[in-house]
Design goal:
- The chain contains nine helices and eight strands.
- It has 266 residues and is of the alpha+beta class.
- The chain has one domain: Nuclear Transport Factor 2, Chain: A.
- It has a four-stranded antiparallel β-sheet with strand order 1-2-3-4.
- The longest helix has 21 residues.
- The protein is globular, with a radius of gyration of 19 Å.
Length: 266
């Protein structure tokens, strides 16, 4: 597939990325690029069926689960943190990987839970954290069993280039759950960690094993989107990974190269 031309602008690139990635992930009917980040809409049913928890009960359960999740993070308890993952996240992680991740993250000092939007199968819970690196905003998606299905830290106060670099570095290190946290909540639904792993490993069949990130550069901006190119070195060649972010630096589109370029002679 020819790489998207930058002259066409970011909206055209976004559509190209969506069309290119969706069929390969078996979700041709669902776009893989969406607009600016917003809280996911998880509408509660008008009248619960027998055995179905009410919205109030779902909210109470989600708040209680969120408190336990944040307590495990504050205590640096990798085993508890891993046990809180939903099965689809556990399959992509391990207590050892969680422990390694926690050692490299700012310490959580305190938190205040914000809004809770209960839904049929999961609830979105917002939290305002105070960490050793300053305040952070966290969105957690918690299922009705109290398990963490996904999460996203707001990175609006950082640089888009930093987010893109950290995302690709997480892929390089095989930390797919962490890599998924850089995606917008909507894109996390479209590209779960297992699908991201398959895509990343399929890429390396053509490029050879990934070596490192060589360079990160901002390419284009619009009022709603930013395009960052992550030049990545593989054992056979080098090529750019296109990362599209919204205005709050949540990743809303990723384009892995399908026609990688040979490294230039030096």
């Amino acid at each position: 597939m020819p790489r998207p031309t930058l002259r066409a602008g970011l909206p055209a690139l976004a559509l190209t990325v969506a069309a290119a990635l969706a069929p390969q992930l078996g979700r041709a009917q669902a776009p893989l690029v969406q607009g600016p980040l917003a809280a996911p809409v998880l509408a509660a049913p008008a009248a619960p069926s027998p055995g179905q928890p009410t919205a109030a009960l779902s909210e109470a359960r989600a708040r209680a689960a969120a408190e336990q999740i944040l307590k495990a993070l504050k205590n640096g308890d990798a085993e508890a943190r891993f046990a809180q993952f939903a099965p689809k996240l556990q399959r992509m992680s391990s207590p050892a990987m969680v422990r390694s991740h926690l050692r490299n993250q700012p310490r959580i000092l305190s938190w205040i839970l914000g809004s809770v939007v209960p839904g049929l199968d999961s609830s979105a819970v917002e939290a305002r954290l105070v960490t050793s690196a300053g305040p952070r905003q966290l969105l957690m998606i918690i299922d009705n069993e109290g398990r963490l299905e996904g999460y996203h830290f707001d990175a609006a106060d950082g640089a888009a280039e930093t987010v893109a670099r950290q995302f690709v570095q997480a892929l390089i290190e095989g930390r797919y759950v962490y890599a998924s946290s850089f995606l917008s909540p909507k894109l996390q639904e479209e590209i779960p960690p297992a699908a991201m792993q398959r895509k990343w490993q399929a890429l390396q069949q053509s490029t050879g094993t990934v070596v490192r990130v060589e360079k990160v550069a901002r390419s284009e901006d619009t009022p709603d989107m930013k395009l960052v190119l992550v030049l990545t070195k593989f054992t056979r060649l080098n090529d750019n990974i296109f990362v599209i972010l919204d205005r709050r630096n949540a990743i809303i589109g990723v384009d892995f190269p399908t026609d990688p370029a040979l490294p230039s002679a030096r």
